[in-house]
Amino acid sequence: MTNTYRSCHSIEGELFFNHLNKVGYCCMLTPNGGQPILYENYQGELIDWDKFFKQRDEHIELMKRGLSLPACTDCLWIKDAKWEVRKKEFRYILFNIWVKCNLYCIYCSNHKDENVLNNTKEYNLIPVIKDMIEKKLLTENTKIDIAGGEATLDKNFDEFLSLLIDSGVKNININTNSTIFSKSIEDGIKKGVVSIISSVDSGTPKKFAYIKKKKLWNNVWQNISKYSKSINQNINNNSVRTKFIIIPGINSSKSEILKFILKSKKSNVSGVILNIDLHWLRQHYDDKNTMTEIINLTKYFIRIANILDIDWQIWAHIEDLIKRYNLVQESSKIDIDFIFDKTKNKKTILDKFFIIILRIISLTM
Ligand SMILES: C[S@@+](CC[C@H](N)C(=O)[O-])C[C@H]1O[C@@H](n2cnc3c(N)ncnc32)[C@H](O)[C@@H]1O
Ligand code: SF4
Ligand code: SF4
Fold it and tell me: Residue 154 burial (CB < 10 Å; 0-12/13-18/19+)?
């Protein structure tokens, strides 16, 4: 059953354990700050869920009346739409509570914001997870995302993940740098309920070391290959993906992208993802030339992935970049649909020739 009213998808069924020990409905930034905060200084204590759902109903009533929480004012996600009758369970939960990491990626949002790095206290999630499972707030319909820092460094990580898996949650995605091999991640992949995304962002050991400040290229790909071997094709064939974040001027070359996709293919990952450094994007909304370069690199990424028969995804920040490019460009607007179009064109003779060359390059990697 559905009802039509003014609300947002986040408030309707999501929960975010965010950095800076805040719990809220989302991690969106809006002109008024976004990220409505439900609990501050949160450190894993049990939550009074009846009170939580009552409060959520009140916040939705505000939206229905054309108002909203101050943080949500002018948020683009508020809309009049048909909403499913709300249940006392969560459709989506993000755990973004870790800041510790063994790498130092030059683009990483954590390091860019010293406030996050210095003022987030990591805490033990186990008690609250057990409570949520007991209260049936986590179900097989709940999608969970785990971000960081690097969650696998947490001494409670294995217990945390096993708890989630054993509770029957079927869709757990972990963003990990894959420097540490986790047995519980491997088990979850085998069962078809855990997927990982590893942002490698480079196609060569040299670039990897430059971006991440550690020489762990071989180690990371070994772990990714090991995870790939566990993919359960019957249940979840999209469970080990690698990501390339374009950092303009640093890794924004065709050769780096080509080598990244070849290495991903060789490691038998289920798919590759392309995104752009969010901080660069925020600071360069008017840089038409670099934007054109990124759009061309995106097309190249799709072409190579198609030629190599590897699944691909282009993430929302690039969609945002193309939309903004269209705004700053007076003529020749770019049709955005190519970043979603999965219909693969037939391979030309030239492509087939190219595949042979790529196989030879791949042998040398
Ligand atoms: C903060 S990380 C934590 C997870 C894990 N350590 C990793 O690197 O995958 C969560 C995700 O945000 C991405 N990320 C961090 N900074 C970003 C930025 N400036 N622009 C785009 N994505 C970013 C990372 O690549 C990663 O996939
Ligand atoms: S209205 Fe926007 S800022 Fe508020 S909870 Fe929804 S998505 Fe988050
Ligand atoms: S590995 Fe992840 S958390 Fe660590 S620095 Fe890189 S992006 Fe940030």
Answer: buried
